[in-house]
Write a structure and sequence with these properties.
four-stranded mixed beta sheet; two-stranded antiparallel ribbon
Length: 643
């Protein structure tokens, strides 16, 4: 077999032909999915979408900073759909049902998509497994992932975009257009890269469609001149204090703020793209090139128009999110790349396996991405430059590989501040060990089945799936308390209900989901700073005085918070009555402070929670630790202001 001038031996390709084998393959994929995506409850952006829907159902929440000056909810119909479901069920059931529905839609769309790439059951299984276990991150600071296990419109939009691209490759244009239209209404930012890819696929057979480009530009100019939202933002620039706030609290969308681990992931993906283009069949290359083109254009626009020119429209659209499809397709084709390397007995197949294993390990152990990038780059050099007549010697291979490992460890050292934060939390997480172990057991079961030890493989896989189902609900006790809206003591409830403006340290979920009232300040509300200037400035006005309390909402300036940060990096909260007096004086509209720290002689009420939580803290020598606590201390600002 010859591939671009390089000859390889070819081995007989195993295939899954029996019903039992197909059932086992499906069970392996199910186990991998359950292990990598257990149910986390209302976390991350699902909190924002849930409170947006709650605000539609009744008065009170509309005064929250997230809505006061405008909301992202105005750009999507998802809030209407979510509020409709909330009219039938409580928040706990609603979130669970939509989380499961989103995952089922996504899985079906992926099956539809992968079936277009290959008809082989084995190749489909390998491709789907790679999609599940390889890194799904597509933004800065590992903030966003495709196929997220919690309820947001993103997962539904992703499924629709995958269906649209599949239909486009089958030339079923009306289905493709319909799916894209619905995705655009649900989550415009996730649908935009799909529009670009479908357009490029369509122009392969219809060159005249390129006339739509100047026509679209003219339409955008007209909408901009007519001051139609959001196109009017093309004429606006984020600058001054607004830019400083956006640069701190929206780093996930700014390429200039991406961490070394984000750039390492992008580097590894770039090399994998080169290897796939070199060895993949024409169908796969025909899919990959428009995906790469759209993602590259998105990154360039995000860097030049967003990070450099500060254009509001480009920043709001977050063109870097186009890389979600790039990561998805690369992961899919990487699985097939590895399978074919073993089929052809490629001389560097073991190195390639090691690099992809390290790449996959970064899903469970984030620092591994720092090792994966130089390893995959080295492997790429081996494969691209290999010559049958003059192969690289084994000592030279080992030396080059050792250099790649050293570079990886140096990258880990450079990013240790961010990495240590993640590791501190991982060390405490029992679920992390369960999920990692379940993934490894699933892969071992698949290997045993391949080695004809099928009874042991079936037993191990059955045990793994059962364990994953038992541990599927991985919400903390705090999350369950909030989502079930369990009652708090009457005196606490009365004080909260009588207070208009409340700052609850790391407790926005209590206010939004349990009491369903506005929060005075939370880092989560910073999401709106990117879209509305007034939101950003008010967020800054409230955050600056509160940062003097050194609460868990704030991080030291050295860790990426140049504008609003802890005044004392080593502090774990306020320690004096004077700090409370200063904050209450600087924020005359603030009524109540609910904090983790006790200040003797200043506390109005104490609530001992029925669960233990952990706060990020530091020891005297600067080491990061997690501090357990089970009490909240209530301080009325009226007690600290002169009458």
């Amino acid at each position: 077999m010859t591939d671009h001038g390089v000859k390889h031996a070819t081995t007989a390709a195993p295939e899954i032909t029996t019903t039992g084998g197909k059932v086992f393959a499906a069970a392996v994929l199910l186990a991998l999915w359950l292990a990598s995506r257990p149910y986390p409850g209302i976390i991350h952006d699902s909190r924002i979408y849930m409170v947006q829907a709650l605000a539609r159902l009744g008065p009170g929440l509309e005064n929250d900073l997230l809505f006061r000056y405008g909301s992202q909810d105005s750009f999507t119909v998802y809030g209407y759909l979510l509020s409709g479901v909330l009219g039938l069920f409580d928040i706990e059931i609603t979130n669970f049902l939509l989380s499961i529905a989103g995952q089922l839609c996504w899985i079906c769309a992926s099956l539809f998509f992968v079936s277009l790439i290959t008809k082989s059951t084995l190749e489909r299984s390998i491709a789907l497994a790679a999609i599940i276990i390889l890194p799904s991150t597509y933004s800065g600071l590992s903030a966003f992932h495709y196929a997220e296990p919690f309820q947001t419109p993103r997962i539904f939009a992703e499924a629709l975009v995958l269906c649209s691209i599949t239909s486009a490759m089958k030339s079923t244009w009306w289905r493709s257009t319909l799916a894209l239209g619905i995705a655009l209404m649900i989550h415009p930012l996730m649908a935009l890269p799909g529009i670009g890819i479908v357009f490029l696929l369509a122009t392969r057979d219809r060159r005249s469609l390129w006339l739509l480009v100047p026509a679209s530009l003219i339409a955008v100019v007209c909408l901009t001149l007519a001051e139609v939202e959001p196109f009017v933002r093309l004429t606006q620039r984020i600058d001054g204090d607004w830019w400083d706030i956006v640069a701190q609290y929206n780093r996930v969308t700014l390429i200039s703020g991406w961490s070394p681990s984000d750039l390492s992931r992008l580097t590894a993906q770039t090399v994998l793209v080169m290897l796939i283009f070199r060895q993949a069949p024409s169908v796969e290359r025909g899919l990959l090139w428009p995906v790469v083109a759209v993602a590259s254009a998105g990154l360039v626009l995000a860097l030049v128009g967003g990070a450099w020119l500060h254009n509001q429209f480009i920043l709001d659209v977050q063109f870097a999110r186009a890389t979600w499809l790039l990561g998805y397709v690369i992961n899919l084709l990487t699985g097939l790349l590895l399978l074919r390397a073993f089929r052809r007995t490629d001389p560097y197949r073991c190195y390639l396996s090691f690099g992809i294993i390290v790449f996959a390990a970064s899903c469970f152990f984030p620092p591994a991405i720092m090792l994966a990038a130089p390893i995959i780059v080295t492997i790429g050099i081996f494969i691209i430059l290999q010559r049958p007549s003059d192969p690289l010697s084994r000592p030279a291979e080992l030396v080059t590989f050792a250099v790649a490992l050293v570079v990886g460890f140096l990258l880990i050292e450079l990013s240790w501040v961010q990495i240590s934060t993640r590791l501190t939390y991982l060390a405490l997480q029992r679920n992390w060990f369960l999920n990692t172990g379940a993934t490894l057991m699933t892969l071992v079961a698949a290997w045993l089945f391949y080695c004809e030890r099928r009874k042991l493989a079936i037993f191990l896989l059955t045990f793994t799936i059962a364990s994953c189902l038992v541990n599927y609900d991985q919400r903390s006790q705090r999350q369950q308390f909030i989502e079930k809206r369990r009652s708090v003591p009457d005196n606490i409830s009365t004080l909260i209900e009588r207070s208009r403006h409340i700052y609850w340290e790391d407790g926005v979920e209590f206010l939004w989901l349990d009491f369903q009232i506005p929060s005075y300040y939370s880092v989560v509300q910073g999401a709106g700073a990117l879209f509305y200037r007034d939101t950003a400035l008010e967020f800054y006005r409230r955050g600056l005085p509160l940062s003097h309390l050194n609460t868990t909402e704030f991080i030291p300036a050295a860790e990426g918070a140049p504008i609003v940060h802890k005044v004392d990096p080593a502090a774990t909260g306020p320690i004096s009555r004077a700090q409370l007096q200063a904050v209450c004086a600087a924020l005359p509209d603030l009524d109540l402070l609910i904090l983790i720290n006790e200040i003797p002689g200043a506390t109005h009420l104490v609530w001992r929670t029925p669960f233990v939580q952990y706060a990020n803290s530091r020891t005297a020598d600067g080491r990061r630790v997690l501090r357990p606590f089970d009490r909240y201390y209530f301080y009325k600002c009226g007690d600290f202001r002169p009458e």
